[in-house]
Amino acid sequence: MDRWAAADYTQTVLVGADYSGLTDYISTETYHQHNPEAADGLDGFGAAAAKWAEQGRNLVYNKVHKVVAEGEFVLLQSEGEFGVPVAYYDLFRVADGKIVEHWDVITAVPAELPHGNGLF
């Protein structure tokens, strides 16, 4: 997997909700999660996602708007829901063909913007 496959991961797994190939994209040996609500590793991510679902905050990705890649890093801007409409900003580090590190910002989409440029 090259760095652009992180975009494929987002489209297939997150937008498409097809988790069958999760380990094709994310390292089963090293996966550092920098979200303070999720522990490292796939088990940590799975536990956090289950907790969020219990709270009515399912991770729903509707559309990927932007992909920027430089070296081993890929930044994606996506639109979805996390209990409310949100913008997702996911930064992935890819090594040895797999996603090995993840940072994210999840921010609510305001009802009105102070400008006409749109959020995405």
Q: What is the overall pLDDT average?
A: 90
Strand residue content: 35-45%
Uncertain segments are none
Count of all domains: 1
Taken from the alpha-carbon principal axes, the silhouette is globular
Helix count, DSSP H or I runs of 4 or more residues: 3
Work out the radius of gyration.
14 Å
Strand order of the largest sheet: 1-5-4-3-2
In N-to-C order, the SSE pattern is HHEHEEEE
Q: Can you tell me the CATH architecture?
A: Roll
Which structural class matches the secondary elements? alpha+beta
CATH fold assignment: Nuclear Transport Factor 2, Chain: A
Biggest sheet architecture: 5 strands, mixed
Helix content: 10-25%
Calculate the terminal CA-CA distance, rounded to whole Å.
Answer: 27 Å
Q: What is the CATH class designation?
A: Alpha Beta
How many individual β-strands?
5
